[in-house]
Amino acid sequence: MEFNVTNCGLHVGNIEVLGVASASLFLIGDADTIQLSSAFDTPAESLIIGALVPFTPQG
Amino acid sequence: MFSRISRVKSFSSQTLSFSSTLQIGDCTYIDGHSETFAVQREAELFWGNEADVLPYPIFYSPSVFLPVAEDVKTTFINNHPFIETGNVNIVGISASSVIAVGNIRHARMRSRVKHIRQLLDRQVDNNSKTVSSNGKRE
Hints:
Chain B: It holds the Pfam family GerPE. By secondary structure, chain A is mainly beta.
């Protein structure tokens, strides 16, 4: 496959961002490759009701 | 091939925390990784030695990044040599995030977040004023 790109002018005004978090990437520029992977888990069993026990107590 | 130059008028940020990076200039590799284990407890309680090893599959299941080996022939023609932005203001940058101004070759970012809420047993608290009746969960 052949992929030809012609970039003309790129002018952006002001940028206001509140937060960039959780291994995010904010890029002003060009990139060859970008690979992203994200997983967020809060299943039903993560709501624990009862006596508070520590997670994986050490020693 | 001539690469473009990023031109930013000004940059400001209030917080940059938890291994985050502000990268000014070109970069070959970016490999960011963040693991977050967020516990919200109804009781103000924390044992300091908790969660050194996290027994949840979200943290030890492998991230699948396919090798970048597509048979694509790319050509870029940059008629304008600049990528221009005005003032950039980012309030918070956190958890292995990267702000990059400039060209990068390869970027790989991974994030794993696990949320857990721990609430007190409602039946134990039956006499307290904040409790729902007969200990049932709503």
